[in-house]
Amino acid sequence: MERFNKYRLILCLLFFSIQSSASDSLSRMNSIYCDFFGNGLSLYCINYERAILVNNDDRKVIAGRIGISLLRNKYDNNSIYGIPLEIIALFGDKKKVDKDSHCFEIGIGWTPFIGTSNLNDTRIPLNAKANFEYGFFFKLGYRHQFFEGGVIRAGPIVYLISDLAKGQKLNCVISPGLCLGYSF
Known about the structure:
The protein is mainly β. 8% of the residues lie in helices and 54% in strands. Strands 1, 2, 3, 4, 5, 6, 7, 8, 9, 10 and 11 form an eleven-stranded antiparallel sheet that branches.
């Protein structure tokens, strides 16, 4: 059932992104990619991104992104879902229509982490009983969009993560980020 829900989410994201643009690689409005050690704070995170504002004269783009990652509670091995939400600004090179695109990107976002643990389980210590955490993140990076549609993104992510169960405000985590995907 859990696997079915993951595939259903991916299909819904594809359904809402039917519009595509083929004029050049920076004007492709949609991207789907896998983020490794990135915004979901797990080994991988599946993401959908949509360009919101595009200025082809100055090669600037504002985009929104949503993703989903799966982590495991270390005490009872139940699922924890991360749902990164991000606003991204891309600054690209001025180029011809038939070339790849190189972009600098800045992103800021928020990720809620939603757990599925039974908080009455005695395996979970008192200082770890929470099914909701959140994190804010900031990212600087490089993006290469191939004319054929491929996307490679790389750059560090600074995370400020809450630890509500322990009563701590925010912890700082720095994570590398590498994404591989496709734009259309």
